[in-house]
Design a protein that fits this description.
binds adenosine-5'-triphosphate, alpha/beta, 2 domains, transmembrane, single chain, six-stranded mixed sheet, four-stranded antiparallel sheet, ABC_transporter-like_CS, ABC1_TM_dom
Length: 580
């Protein structure tokens, strides 16, 4: 195992402009498409919040005018107030302040509704992204799934989805800020057009420079995606190899790898933080100069005091949304590679999506394979397999390691589609719908049992149609595990640990077998499913399975010669050649 850094952020290719804006546009398209009506409501609230903010600022002019001149000024608002009977400066000020407070209350209510709508939108988007990943995995063909790294999926579902949520949040924040900025800029334009135009031009130049730097930020983000996947892979490897590592005292090799990946990730994260801090610094200095220029130019061009004060307030208020847009843009492009990774994963799987039409159940009868071929890219697999398995027969499959036994079973149960040849059941040739229907009647027991971190009860119920407790105990008795479960601290409600880690190998296999029996399958597949159970108990169990009424068709792979004694038929597989 390499103790040096396993990933290198410099490996990420520099992004051209096209490669930055294309995924950004794709993200916006996906997000807007997802948001639908909810998005329009949120946008309406955003716009209303920005307009109310602008109106509040506008009201400051007559208020300040009343305070500065103490006479209520000669503005259009003052004339209107005069016309409705408010003749004194004080009564006008009270009326204006009342309107100001009322506006503040309405604005606060609108902004509250806006924030809730935006938060809802963001969290449902995360949920949607997660569901998309899981659906893509569920819909993919087995031959594609088998080559997927679990750490990649886990990383996408956790870290990368959270980063995408961040992107969505930054997109929303930036659009809120942009709406506010537009209203405030319009306000500034009405107050002092030349001054506002000059400031807007400066803001646009600064903004352009920020946006041109997004390619590098996306590259740093891509380094994070790469590093996160490596970190998850390392953690998974560590946890799955923990016993072997502890037994030989080699945990430190795992730790060294993990720490090295973490250190690289930290550096990647810091290089982004440095860029952000630098932009904040540039912005702070720039806005200091801008504020001084506004006052100076306003003074030189004889802008009235109330207007100048309001302008300074407007510009000061504009700096908040402006810095927010800049920071949100940086964060958005930093997190964009996570969205790209999610999209790439989904389109990779979609390219080999298993066509799963409504399942069609094949009629009862024999399984017949004619010239079946299934070859992996590596050359392994099976070729030209022809055989017949009578319904209800007990068939053993033998052969050396790597001969093609599991490949044959995968094709016979309809898990993989043969590259050529036909598979039929009860005389019906299985297409995609037939294979899906056929699998509904299959119970598959692999060597490692497949138990999850839950109670015995939930493990038995998985894949079964709500079995009652009596049926569960019957199944446990059938596999000789009833006494074991009764002895457990919480009986059938005892948690069996991660992958059944709190049980012995043989006990795990018994529980997996009990679950398969509960399913009452048409086809029971035992893929070295009892190799951890002692030979005597296995013989006993095989006798019980053979006596099942009604008896399912049984396919059993085993390396134990004595296990084959119970079988009606034995198929030999060697070098991909099937002799039935
Ligand atoms: N997903 C895969 N991609 C590429 N090659 C594979 C894949 N799965 C299996 N193979 C190769 O195909 C051949 C047959 O594998 P298979 O698992 O069917 O053998 P097996 O007889 O069940 O072996 P064992 O008794 O060791 O479980 C082997 O050479 C194996 O390396």
């Amino acid at each position: 195992m390499a103790t040096a850094t396993r990933f290198d952020m410099d490996k990420t290719t520099p992004a051209g402009l096209g490669s930055v804006w294309q995924p950004a546009a794709a993200f916006v398209r996906v997000f807007v498409g997802f948001a639908g009506r909810q998005g329009w409501i949120a946008t309406g609230l955003v716009a209303a919040g920005a307009v109310l903010d602008g109106v509040g600022l506008l009201l400051l002019i007559p208020i300040l005018d009343s305070v500065v001149t103490r006479a209520g000024g000669a503005s259009r608002i003052s004339t209107t107030l005069d016309a409705i009977g408010l003749h004194t400066a004080f009564s006008r000020l009270i009326a204006l302040l009342g309107a100001f407070v009322l506006l503040a209350v309405v604005r606060a209510l609108v902004q509250f509704a806006r924030d809730i709508a935006l938060a809802k939108l963001q969290s449902t988007f995360v949920e949607y992204q997660r569901n998309q990943v899981m659906r893509a995995v569920a819909a993919a063909s087995w031959s594609r799934i088998v080559g997927l790294r679990h750490a990649r999926i886990t990383n996408l579902l956790t870290t990368e989805v959270s980063r995408v949520a961040g992107s969505a949040q930054f997109l929303i924040q930036a659009s809120v800020a942009a709406a506010m900025l537009v209203v405030q800029a319009a306000l500034a334009l009405t107050l002092a057009p030349v001054l506002a135009l000059a400031t807007t031009a400066l803001v646009l130049i600064g903004g352009g420079a920020v946006f041109l730097a997004q390619g590098k930020i996306r590259d740093i983000g891509a380094g994070m995606v790469h590093g996160n996947a490596a970190l998850m892979g390392s953690a998974n490897g560590f946890l799955s190899g923990l016993k072997a590592a502890a037994a030989q005292n080699t945990q430190n090799e795992f730790i060294a790898e993990f720490e090295s990946i973490q250190a690289s990730l930290r550096e990647t994260g810091l290089s982004f933080q440095r860029r952000q801090a630098n932009s904040r610094r540039v912005f702070a200095i720039g806005s200091g100069f801008a504020a001084a220029s506004v006052v100076l130019i306003g003074f030189a061009t004889n802008v009235p005091p109330a207007v100048l004060i309001t302008l300074v307030l407007v510009f000061a208020r504009m700096s908040g949304p402006a810095i927010l847009i800049q920071q949100a843009a940086q964060n958005f492009f930093f997190a964009l590679p996570s969205f790209e990774a999610l999209q790439a994963f989904q389109s990779e799987l979609a390219a080999e999506r298993a066509t799963t039409p409504a399942p069609v159940l094949p009629p009862p009868g024999a399984i017949a394979a004619r010239d079946l071929v299934y070859r992996y890219a590596t050359g392994g697999g099976i070729g030209d397999a022809s055989l017949t398995i009578e319904s209800g027969s007990f068939v053993g499959i033998v052969g050396p390691s790597g001969a093609g036994k599991t490949t044959l079973i995968d094709v016979l149960i309809g898990l993989t589609e043969p590259q050529s040849g036909t598979l039929s059941v009860g005389g019906m040739v299985l297409d995609a719908a037939g294979r899906a229907g056929w699998r509904e009647g299959v119970a598959y027991v692999p060597q490692e049992g497949f138990l999850f971190h839950d109670t015995v009860r939930r493990n038995l119920a998985w894949g079964n149609r709500a079995p009652d407790e009596a049926a569960m105990w019957d199944a446990l008795e059938f596999v000789g595990a009833d006494a074991l479960v009764r002895r457990m601290p919480d009986g059938i409600d005892t948690i069996v640990g991660e992958r059944g880690a709190l049980l012995s190998g043989g006990e795990r296999q018994r529980l997996a077998l009990a679950r398969a029996i509960l399913r009452r399958p048409r086809l029971l597949v035992l893929d070295e499913a009892m190799n951890a159970i002692d030979a005597g108990s296995e013989t006993l169990l095989l006798g019980r399975i053979a006596a099942l009424e009604p008896r399912p068709t049984i396919l059993m792979i085993s390396h134990r010669a004595e296990s084959m004694a119970t079988c009606d038929q034995v198929i030999r597989v060697e070098g991909g050649v099937v002799a039935g």
